[in-house]
Design brief:
The chain has 130 residues and is α+β, with helices and mostly antiparallel strands. The protein is 28% helix and 28% strand. The chain has a 6-stranded antiparallel β-sheet with strand order 1-6-5-4-3-2.
């Protein structure tokens, strides 16, 4: 997915960190649901988040999936505990994208929690023969 970002100009880039309450559910969803994964953000009508191990990209469906912002270059080596934030780079591809960063992370977290909960209920009812 990272290669799709190369054709778009970056408005702003900076080093940031993502709190573990947002990062851990994404990693869990990528390992349990699908990888890569596309998540629709309920109250941000035309925005989706494309997730894989290397990048999280917020795209606008109404503009043909042009990126709004992206988290990338996650620094796994410096993260020593699951409860610690992870350092990464955030690229803004739109002048107003900084406004939605917190909202995107909150919606992503709540959406993934419900998807993981649904997945847990459907898989726990299956019988696994050995």
């Amino acid at each position: 997915m990272r290669s799709r970002l190369r054709s778009f100009p970056v408005y702003e880039t900076r080093i940031t960190s993502i709190d573990s309450k947002y990062y851990n559910p994404v990693r869990l969803a990528l390992s349990r649901l699908a990888n890569p994964l596309r998540i629709k953000l309920p109250s941000l009508h035309t925005l989706d988040v494309l997730l894989d191990n290397e990048t999280w990209i917020v795209v606008d469906r109404s503009t043909g999936d042009k990126p709004m912002l992206a988290w990338l270059d996650f620094d796994y080596a410096s993260r020593l505990s699951l409860h610690k934030p992870i350092i990464c780079r955030i690229n803004h591809y739109h002048t107003q994208s900084a406004i939605i960063v917190d909202k995107v992370l909150e919606l992503l977290r709540s959406t993934l929690r419900s998807k993981l909960q649904q997945s847990r209920h459907t898989t726990s009812n299956r019988i696994i023969y050995l």
